[in-house]
Write a structure and sequence with these properties.
heterodimer, A: 482 residues, alpha/beta, Aspartate Aminotransferase, domain 2, Aspartate Aminotransferase, domain 1, 2 domains, seven-stranded mixed β-sheet, three-stranded antiparallel β-sheet, 16 helices, B: alpha+beta, OB fold (Dihydrolipoamide Acetyltransferase, E2P), six-stranded antiparallel β-sheet, 4 helices, 9 strands, 21% helix
């Protein structure tokens, strides 16, 4: 398939502009670029076919089963899109005076109220545009909290089952990570936690359920150990889908939590966004929240003054507004009874699917799981040379998106599977059969596994070359200024 | 398994060699590079940075995952192997020739076990 740049023909275009009926204005040379930008020149028909063709080669939630562990690839209801398309929401400008967009601010305030109820927290900012940015916001606030008390604590305790973004966040904030191992059940090793928690502990970052799909049942003891040492507790809300409406981070001893609206609250994601990593906190951290915040006068909203101890702005303007709108729509559609039902169904689906797969696959932490579980291909890799990666590639040939591979790091040859609550039993039965069939094929004929995928446009791209020497710009080779 | 006798190994799969002036060189073992797969990026500390034994000194990224590298000893970084920053594939090709950093005033700490090649071989067999 040709790139859109290769299809370009000079002078071809897909829009005709009306005749100029205002006086021309000459820009000075200092403002004018030396040559026009090198953009592809194609007709609307060519443009449309090009992107439709790309779409056919991609795989999304609308294409089939997408059990990408820790990513919560649930179905995104179309009603969310209908609401987000309303003109009153789309035809506004971020620089419009706050009192002229009170309806939109009302949306933010309502979403805030509902999310505070779901998290059990006291205050929140909608600003962060991704989960990792929510983490950064939370740890910056925790750091500022300690600084405001003239305390220079700089250690963040993180279990080895954490998402990779946790240690990265701590490091971005100039903190040192203390890694603690999991015990044989895949939970935090409490005795080790007690050993490392102390007067230099700034805080703990914990995901519950963790990346092994295991609920940290000792969570109250864990958060208490940190509080007694003088640290604060950060809840990584990446896996909230398993517990929303059932238990609340605020009731488990956490001082702040980020939510991935794009995961848990069903807004489209994958491929880099748009996301929303809302950060909610307890009163103890409230004064450090990013600004702006709003308050309601009798008939419209106003912006509050910049709070003295705030960590500052995290995103421009209001963040990803349409994502908030879709998340709000989702929460209101499900309501108070169906939010917990959704979480329970996610857990049920995951356990059901795990039991089907356990007929053949090795599941290193075999007890009941939460919303996801992890397979290990360690023995198969050793005995037959069939790795987690080979199974993932074979699934592509059967129109199934591969699970997350080689994560969490504490499981060798990991395949991490999260079916989500939006899949029916019939589909889970069907895809489980495929997983089992693929396993047999791979064990009988490892060479066949290693050749997969065979039905895709490109079989096995050179991942190493792509990572070591990426070509990110069509004009890179020509080395021209674009 | 490729395990030179003159090296010592940590549980987190770094190798280390310390000379008579207490200057150490640190890299990652053949077992480590093999389990990570093709290495595509590496982050190293700066010359002059000081570390305690067990501190993170950088990370290695393969097509599978990012893994942290820990210092098996305490001391101060006196040199880094800049060649690895542009050619990380050398770590896969020659793990024991590809030292990551040189540490001056290298001091062994009881908290980090340093194994002989035969002890490390046994350790790896249990892990795999």
């Amino acid at each position: 398939m040709k790139l859109i740049f290769e299809k370009s023909v000079e002078g071809r275009h897909c829009a005709s502009l009306p005749k100029n009926d205002v006086p021309e204005f000459e820009l000075g040379d200092e403002l004018r670029r030396s040559h026009p930008p090198r953009l592809p020149e194609v007709s609307e028909n060519e443009l449309s076919r090009h992107y439709t063709s790309l779409e056919r080669r991609s795989f999304g939630v609308n294409s089939g089963f997408f059990p990408l562990g820790s990513c919560t690839m649930k179905y995104n209801p179309k009603v969310n899109e209908d609401i987000a398309k309303l003109e009153g929401f789309t035809e506004i400008h971020p620089l419009a005076p706050v009192n002229s967009v009170s309806g939109c601010i009302e949306v933010l305030e309502l979403l805030k109220k509902l999310l505070l109820e779901i998290t059990g927290m006291d205050n929140l900012t909608l600003q962060p545009s991704a989960g990792a940015q929510g983490e950064l916001t939370g740890i910056m606030m925790i750091k500022k909290y300690h600084q405001s008390r003239n305390d220079n604590r700089d250690k963040i305790i993180i279990p080895d089952s954490a998402h990779g973004t946790n240690p990265a966040t701590a490091s971005m904030c100039g903190m040192k990570t203390i890694n603690i191992p999991s015990n044989s059940e895949g939970r935090v090793d409490i005795s080790r936690l007690k050993e490392v928690a102390g007067e230099d502990t700034a805080g703990l970052m914990l995901t519950n359920p963790n990346t092994l799909g295991v609920f940290e049942k000792d969570v109250l003891e864990i958060t208490d150990i940190i509080h007694k040492s003088g640290g604060l507790n950060y809840f990584d809300g990446a896996n909230l889908n398993a517990i929303m409406g059932v238990v609340r981070p605020g009731d488990m001893g956490f001082d702040c939590v980020h939510l991935n609206l794009h995961k848990t609250f069903s807004t489209p994601h994958g491929g880099g966004g748009p996301g929303s990593g809302v950060l909610a906190c307890k009163e103890v951290l409230s004064e450090f929240l990013p600004y702006p915040n709003f308050f309601n006068t009798s008939d419209f909203y106003k912006t509050e003054d910049i709070p003295e101890k705030s960590i500052g702005r995290i995103s421009g303007f209001y963040g990803n507004f349409l994502v908030y709108l879709k998340a709000l729509c989702y929460i209101l559609s499900l309501g108070k009874t169906s939010i917990p039902l959704s979480a329970k169904t996610a857990v049920l689906n995951s356990n059901y699917f795990k039991n089907l797969l356990s007929k053949k696959y090795n599941i290193p932490f075999p007890n009941d799981c939460m919303h996801e579980f992890v397979i290990s291909m360690k023995d198969e890799a050793k005995n037959k040379g069939v790795t987690a990666n080979h199974i993932a590639k074979m699934l592509i040939d059967r129109n199934i998106h591969p699970p997350t591979v080689y994560f969490p790091l504490i499981v060798k040859e990991a395949l991490m599977i999260e079916p989500a609550e939006t899949e029916a039993k019939e589909l889970l039965d069907e895809v489980a059969e495929i997983f089992l069939e693929i396993y047999d094929i791979a064990m009988n004929d490892p060479e066949m596994a290693k050749a997969a995928p065979i039905n895709t446009e490109i079989s096995q791209p050179d991942e190493v070359l792509a990572a070591r020497k990426p070509v990110l710009n069509f004009y890179d080779e020509e080395n021209v200024d674009v | 398994m490729n395990l030179p006798d003159n090296l010592r190994f940590s549980k987190s799969h770094e190798w280390i060699i310390i000379d008579e002036n207490n200057t150490a060189k640190v890299g990652i073992s053949d077992f480590a590079q093999h389990s990570m797969g093709d290495i595509v990026f590496i982050n190293l500390p700066s010359v002059g940075d000081s570390f305690d034994a067990g501190d993170e000194i950088g990370d290695v990224e393969s097509v599978k995952a990012v893994s942290e590298i820990y210092s098996p000893v305490s001391g101060t970084v006196s040199a880094i192997n800049e060649e690895l920053l542009t050619s990380p594939e050398l770590i896969n090709e020659d793990p024991y020739g590809s030292w990551f950093i040189e540490i001056e005033g290298a001091t062994i700490d009881d908290s980090i076990t340093l194994m002989t090649s035969s002890e490390y071989e046994e350790f790896c067999q249990k892990e795999s």
